[in-house]
Amino acid sequence: MEEIRRRTGADDRPLHMVKTVRHELVKLRGTGIKGHLSMVPIDMEPTPIILAYIDLNLQKPSRM
Fold this sequence. Notes:
Elements (H helix, E strand, L loop, with lengths): L1 H8 L3 H17 L19 H11 L5
């Protein structure tokens, strides 16, 4: 999480691209996006950060 916060302030185009793609996928699939995460180890500790971000995107209302 600290690495993401640190890189957010910098001009980090790869991170921005990944965040945009994730946001668009969540917008398109909604809660069904979790059914497409078969390669993400959901029982890991700590939980993979992608899952937290997907949940965050699912809570935000769409701006379209």
